[in-house]
């Protein structure tokens, strides 16, 4: 397993237009759990955080990032768009958080990209540019009608605070975000 210096702090929280993700989230948890048990390893968790827009707690995918000595929030799971299929915000949080952790631990979280799987728009984790999204690398499904390229652009803008270079590389209709380059600008 390749130990990656990693943080996607990609602020997927900026994807409010996708209705599966929310903005302006404030973490409401202690850092001691991950920092004490996994001091030198990026670790993903599903936790409750406060959604400032609604004033309610929602499930969120967060990560312990040793280099930052803190938690980074990724995705606030607020939308009930997928509830009809049994995918509540809490269930999506648990499943996607586990996928982030598994992909990270197996060295498969080098790029985030967008694509289609079974006709659905998805965000996926890729090892190399040029790969495409499939059922084995899919992180999560986007709401019908969403713009996945715009979603990736927004998460990059948020994570960078719009102050560092955009880390996007396009290949046709597929966009790639280099996790390693992203980390270099943020750590």
How many helices in DSSP terms? Answer: 4
Number of strands: 9
The overall average pLDDT, rounded, is 71
Structural class: alpha+beta
So what's the oligomer here?
single chain
Order of helices and strands: EHEEEHEEEHEEH
The share of residues in helices is: 10-25%
Q: What is the terminal-to-terminal distance?
A: 22 Å
Q: Sketch the major β-sheet.
A: 5 strands, antiparallel
Percent strand: 25-35%
Unreliable stretches covering 5 or more consecutive residues: 1-36, 161-172
The general outline is globular
Radius of gyration: 15 Å
Please give the order of strands in the largest beta sheet.
7-6-5-9-8
The tally of structural domains comes to: 1
